């Protein structure tokens, strides 16, 4: 959120357009299109191997699409100069060097995007890791690693946030904390894309839902719409993905 | 500049790199140990044998330790990120990717430029202080060109390791190739019949420092066919080819 | 349990690459023999090194990697935990790994070294190329010693892998034993160059065959002692591994 946005009307918007990603013959993502708007928590659902993580990697420019494109703030992610200021992401909480301290893990990230080191202490405080900041991240529990990954995503105070399964490994306190955090981030006008398999939790957290199966879009709608048509989000999910539970090109 | 500061912090915040630096500088202690054994042997030798006593240059003997250690630091600087998945974070933070590898080269190569001269000149000082009264030790001015060029090789090993790591993405593979280039291939080349032994021996990494300074290599296991300039170019290529390949490949690969 | 460790080792692509790299020696040896043969035709006779000895370091380092990765790959990916929950008796697990690593490296080494030997002799024919001066019986101790050195290095690699839990540290240590220390030993003043050099891992192979270590270095140990020292390397590494592995938290 620095400088004047290049596309004011697309600020905070994630646009996935006819996105396709093939690994060999398998299509992990197949002609997928959807839009994520700011001010909401958008739940990203689908069976294992449906292409959720691949889509997130494509949005972040980590994998190259076979065809189609993914835009953030109207631009391809790879063209962003200091991306942490615009997009924060938690893909894999275990992606840490085991002997590096939590503080240093965040500090190198801050340095790479020209973020004030003061911010590192702030986000550590915000996620409740200030007390263990100097400990080696390798010794953290999965829940603590998730908190550290969330701190990393918040570091640049970005307008767009992506979280892949952030609730895994968290205790009930942590689950509640994530729910409140996601909702407050959205309430501040940020864009939040959140993937999870916990339907009851998703029903409490998300306003909008994107469901994919076998790399294709199944439905893009509001939670309210789904819970009105089916009796719960869980029933809606199970009914809609019934034909798509198959292990595709999971990576 | 930001990316450089980040990569510097990454390198210095990992325990294994402290160990690698300690091992590299430990080469100086190894030189002291060799010198002490040489002194003990000289003092126990009969006077008639003392006059002809000779010893290899200590810095030549121990230099392989910082060379390999820093080569491994170069390898791990990138392969450890692939192994932990951290490479995704690095590339998400710097979508251009090439600045990440370039900054790693500056940090790892820069450390090599510090470690190499420290080890080489300290080891020379050891041989001067400890051995000079007993063994013939070449004067500083005579040795200086070779000391400088061999100290620079440590940075070349570090960058070679980093380049191999960037291309192969696997610590085991990159270290195996590094060892292949440093040991296995020269051993095989040394066994080749002439003229190939000398021709290929001249482009082996270990032959280059002395070819650059134009020292007498008749007793060496390597060849000495390259001119100083050609040898300097070859030394640079050992680092530049793998790093250049890494820079080319890093952009397009999915992580 | 041995079957499951065998399946693990065989299903990792790095094992296949490593054995492939070792097998490359057969091709290199054939090229070498052709080249040496043409030189012998031109000059009448030459003294060339046997390819299975000249290329032995390639076999040694490739297959030592198999030993290292057999355990560090599990630490790297975290699969060591399921391995230990599946087989809580850690000694048995490590013994199974050692058996499989020994078998999976000795057999390829045996094949590569003896095939290279046979091919190089076939190609040389009755030309005097140096390495075919002796009979097969004369060469046999050196060939068997070479194979044994590969097995020992793989087991040392496995032991170092368990102790360090890091691919880089274990490979670095193997390289130290195989190349760095033996490279430094000849520079020690006499008589330490021989006393220390004789115990260096790669120098034990020629001593098993009762040969000089190199043009610069004499042997010191009788063949039986050299075999014992070689086996000692594996024993020390494995005992250290057993002691550490049993007591450490996964």
TrEMBL record, chain B:
<feature type="transmembrane region" description="Helical">
    <location>
        <begin position="144"/>
        <end position="164"/>
    </location>
</feature>
<feature type="transmembrane region" description="Helical">
    <location>
        <begin position="61"/>
        <end position="80"/>
    </location>
</feature>
<keyword id="KW-0812">Transmembrane</keyword>
<protein>
    <submittedName>
        <fullName>Uncharacterized protein</fullName>
    </submittedName>
</protein>
<keyword id="KW-1133">Transmembrane helix</keyword>
<feature type="transmembrane region" description="Helical">
    <location>
        <begin position="229"/>
        <end position="250"/>
    </location>
</feature>
<feature type="transmembrane region" description="Helical">
    <location>
        <begin position="101"/>
        <end position="124"/>
    </location>
</feature>
<keyword id="KW-0472">Membrane</keyword>
<feature type="transmembrane region" description="Helical">
    <location>
        <begin position="19"/>
        <end position="41"/>
    </location>
</feature>
<feature type="transmembrane region" description="Helical">
    <location>
        <begin position="171"/>
        <end position="189"/>
    </location>
</feature>
TrEMBL record, chain C:
<keyword id="KW-0812">Transmembrane</keyword>
<keyword id="KW-1133">Transmembrane helix</keyword>
<feature type="transmembrane region" description="Helical">
    <location>
        <begin position="140"/>
        <end position="163"/>
    </location>
</feature>
<keyword id="KW-0472">Membrane</keyword>
<feature type="transmembrane region" description="Helical">
    <location>
        <begin position="224"/>
        <end position="245"/>
    </location>
</feature>
<protein>
    <submittedName>
        <fullName>ABC-type transport system involved in multi-copper enzyme maturation permease subunit</fullName>
    </submittedName>
</protein>
<dbReference type="GO" id="GO:0140359">
    <property type="term" value="F:ABC-type transporter activity"/>
</dbReference>
<dbReference type="Pfam" id="PF12730">
    <property type="entry name" value="ABC2_membrane_4"/>
</dbReference>
<feature type="transmembrane region" description="Helical">
    <location>
        <begin position="17"/>
        <end position="35"/>
    </location>
</feature>
<feature type="transmembrane region" description="Helical">
    <location>
        <begin position="170"/>
        <end position="188"/>
    </location>
</feature>
<feature type="transmembrane region" description="Helical">
    <location>
        <begin position="55"/>
        <end position="73"/>
    </location>
</feature>
<feature type="transmembrane region" description="Helical">
    <location>
        <begin position="94"/>
        <end position="120"/>
    </location>
</feature>
<dbReference type="GO" id="GO:0005886">
    <property type="term" value="C:plasma membrane"/>
</dbReference>
């Amino acid at each position: 959120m620095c400088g004047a946005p290049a596309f004011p009307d697309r600020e905070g918007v994630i646009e996935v357009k006819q996105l396709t990603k093939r690994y060999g013959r398998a299509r992990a993502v197949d002609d997928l299109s959807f839009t994520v708007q700011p001010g909401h928590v958008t739940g990203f659902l689908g069976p294992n191997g449906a292409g959720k993580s691949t889509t997130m990697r494509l949005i972040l420019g980590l994998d190259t699409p076979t065809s189609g494109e993914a835009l953030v703030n109207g631009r391809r992610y790879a063209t962003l100069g200091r991306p942490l200021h615009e997009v924060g992401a938690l893909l894999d909480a275990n992606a840490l060097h085991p002997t590096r301290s939590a503080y240093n893990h965040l500090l190198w990230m801050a340095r790479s995007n020209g973020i004030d080191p003061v911010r590192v202490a702030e986000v550590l405080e915000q996620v409740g890791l200030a007390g263990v900041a100097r400990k080696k991240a390798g010794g953290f529990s999965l829940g603590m690693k998730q908190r550290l990954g969330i701190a990393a995503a918040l570091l640049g105070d970005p307008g767009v946030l992506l979280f892949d399964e952030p609730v895994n490994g968290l205790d009930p306190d942590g689950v509640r904390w994530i729910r409140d955090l996601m909702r407050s981030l959205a309430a501040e006008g940020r864009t939040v894309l959140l993937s999870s398999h916990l339907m009851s939790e998703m029903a409490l957290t998300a306003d909008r839902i994107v469901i994919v199966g076998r790399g294709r879009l199944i439905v893009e709608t509001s939670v309210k719409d789904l819970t009105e048509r089916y009796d719960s989000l869980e029933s809606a999910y199970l009914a809609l993905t019934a034909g798509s539970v198959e292990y595709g090109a999971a990576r | 500049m930001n990316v450089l500061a980040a990569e510097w912090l990454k390198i210095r915040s990992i325990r294994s790199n402290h160990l690698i630096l300690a091992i590299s500088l430990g080469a100086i202690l190894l030189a002291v140990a060799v010198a002490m054994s040489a002194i003990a042997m000289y003092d126990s030798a009969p006077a008639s044998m003392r006059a002809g006593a000779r010893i290899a240059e200590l810095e030549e003997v121990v230099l392989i330790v910082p060379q390999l250690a820093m080569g491994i630091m170069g390898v791990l600087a990138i392969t450890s990120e692939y192994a932990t998945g951290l490479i995704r974070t690095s590339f998400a933070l710097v979508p251009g990717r090439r600045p990440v590898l370039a900054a790693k080269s500056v940090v790892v190569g820069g450390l090599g430029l510090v470690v190499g001269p420290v080890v080489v000149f300290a080891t020379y000082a050891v041989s001067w202080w400890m051995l000079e009264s007993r063994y013939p030790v070449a004067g500083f001015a005579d040795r200086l060109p070779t000391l400088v060029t061999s100290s620079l090789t440590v940075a070349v090993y570090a960058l070679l390791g980093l380049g191999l790591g960037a291309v192969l993405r696997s610590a085991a593979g990159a270290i195996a190739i590094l060892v292949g280039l440093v040991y296995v291939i020269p051993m095989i080349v040394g066994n080749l019949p002439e003229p190939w032994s000398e021709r290929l021996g001249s482009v082996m990494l270990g032959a280059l420092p002395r070819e650059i300074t134009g020292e007498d290599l008749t007793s060496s296991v390597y060849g000495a066919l390259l001119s100083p300039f050609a040898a300097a170019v070859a030394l640079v290529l050992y680092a530049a080819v793998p790093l250049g390949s890494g820079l080319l490949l890093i952009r397009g690969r999915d992580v | 349990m041995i079957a499951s460790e065998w399946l693990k080792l065989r299903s990792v692509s790095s094992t296949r690459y490593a054995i492939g790299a070792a097998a490359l020696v057969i091709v290199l040896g054939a090229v070498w023999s052709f080249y040496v043969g043409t030189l012998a035709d031109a000059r009448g006779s030459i003294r060339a090194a046997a390819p299975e000895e000249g290329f032995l370091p390639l076999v040694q380092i490739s297959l030592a990697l198999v030993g290292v990765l057999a355990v560090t790959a599990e630490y790297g990916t975290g699969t060591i935990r399921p391995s230990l929950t599946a087989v809580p008796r850690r000694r048995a697990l490590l013994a199974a790994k050692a058996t499989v690593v020994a078998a999976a490296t000795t057999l390829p080494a045996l094949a590569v070294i003896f095939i290279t030997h046979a091919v190089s002799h076939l190609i040389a024919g009755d030309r005097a190329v140096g390495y075919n001066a002796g009979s097969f019986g004369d060469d046999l101790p050196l060939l068997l010693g070479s194979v044994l050195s590969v097995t020992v290095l793989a087991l040392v690699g496995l032991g170092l892998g368990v102790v360090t839990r890091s691919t880089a540290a274990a490979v670095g240590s193997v390289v130290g034993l195989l190349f760095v220390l033996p490279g430094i030993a000849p520079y020690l003043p006499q008589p330490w160059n021989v006393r220390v050099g004789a115990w260096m891992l790669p120098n034990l192979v020629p001593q098993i065959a009762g040969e000089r270590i190199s043009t610069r270095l004499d042997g010191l140990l009788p063949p039986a002692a050299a075999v014992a020292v070689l086996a000692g390397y594996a024993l020390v590494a494995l005992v250290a591994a057993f002691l550490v592995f049993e007591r450490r938290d996964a």
